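Checklist before submission:
- one chain only
- standard amino acids only
- sequence pasted in full

Submission:
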Amino acid sequence: MILCIDIGNTNIKYAIYDGDNLKISFRVETAHKKTSDEYGSQLITMLSVKNIRPEDITGGILSSVVPSLDYTISHMCSAYLSISPLLLAPGLKTGINLKVENAKEVGADRIVNSVSAWRKYGKGTPMIVVDFGTATTFNVLDAKGDFLGGVVAPGIKGSLESLVSGTAKLPRVEIEAPKSAIGKNTVTNMQAGIVFGFAGLVDYMIKRIKRELKCAEVVTVATGGFGEVIAREIDSIDVVDKFLTLDGLKFLYRLNCSEVK
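Returned file contents:
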């Protein structure tokens, strides 16, 4: 079994695969001050719930956009699982070319999502991979699977938090689509602005990117916490895959470990 870990700005996602079989996946809050022992106790608890022994995990891989936690999580893997996870960093094989001005600026999560989308849904046509995370990112691949660049926009949850914290009377609301764009109360007014507003942003960006690619067929894949919410409002997203990042890490582990079958 292998352990895949994706450290994001808001959450840390874990998945354990036995071959292609996903045995368990869960997420915890990204806490910068938490120790490796605290993260380790969380992991061991989740393993015990699924009757997975720590010694059954023989390898792992880690992607991160929070460098300050790289050592903490790597040390946790060493102390509690006796493995040294691969770190997605320059030098690790990915199978895609980054055709940008500075490849080091491309976040690990964007690379993993692009690799995964190409492996799972690539049909020899350009692709747009949208991740609804702390930021909303658009990753653009050409017909060969090369990374051409993309877009970084505000995240849905962060935008809502900014709206609430920057005003005196607006409440926190559930991020879900109201029945109408014309809200009848404060909650539905805010939900319409967040959900329909972001749906409009995403739909326009996808259409704009497609125009610039000048290609009749482009596959659009979405992932992240609010992918399904937005995909229900627009027709420009073809696939929603909540395990895109973790599946990508599984593939990259195999690509970089020849002994793994």
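Reviewer check: The first strand starts at residue 2 and ends at 7.
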